[in-house]
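Need Tryptophan 2,3-dioxygenase's 3D structure for a figure. Predict it.
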Amino acid sequence: MSAQRPLEDGIVQDFKVNLSYGEYLHLDEILNAQHPVSVPEHHDELLFILQHQTSELWLKLVVHELRAVQQHLAKDELRPALKGLARVKHIQRTLTEQWSVLATLTPSEYAEFRSFLGTSSGFQSYQYRAIEFLLGNKDRRMLKIFDDHPAALTLLQDALATPSVYDEFLHFLARRGHQVPVEILQRDVTQPYEYQADLVPVFQHIYENAEQNWDVYEACEELVDLEENFQLWRFRHLKTVERTIGFKRGTGGSSGVSFLKAALDLTFFPELYAVRTEIGVPR
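Structure prediction for Tryptophan 2,3-dioxygenase:
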């Protein structure tokens, strides 16, 4: 038995003219984008950089997909919107599992190069912030952090000014004939979404009449999956930070674990959770 498999005649081997894998993906740029700052260079800093760079690449795709979901919902195209949400859910699972790689960085190892990070922090991830805005957790105060980054500021200003995924879904429901309160449909979309008790009966009707509302019933569950995955990601982030630095302050000035723990109380789609208490309760 040969130790090598033969190359097939049809395999392209000349890339003086043909487009190569590396050129298409700009691999030279990507693979040379890691620049450790520790002196002397610490072995584990490459892990730390790659963990965050790959996360940012996935976040870029989440932003891309959520924008498409918004557009599909605005055009009453629920099926492709659900496809987009399904893709985001798979990306979320990948992002959550990535924390297990960073968790191999021990406290003593991280302490050897953490000081070189200066004030850089994941809190400054404008793509993460854009995702929160796209899902309805909008906070105009965050814009100031990116005053010196025009591209990031433009992305966040656009996400702040446009209806969130949830806003678009509620408008879609209204066009379908569901009794979404008018004041919710006319709300200022630049403000963070807040719980609306009058919306709960709308979802209760959908859930208790699932057979007649199957597609929107499915969409509701997809949104719940999305939020649950987001919370799982936040929790793994919290536990990885706690495991690595304990209760030290964050490099960006936050309280660290306590600050991350507070984010676990945030919710994007509050009525989709509140309705669960009401389902099956006689009216």
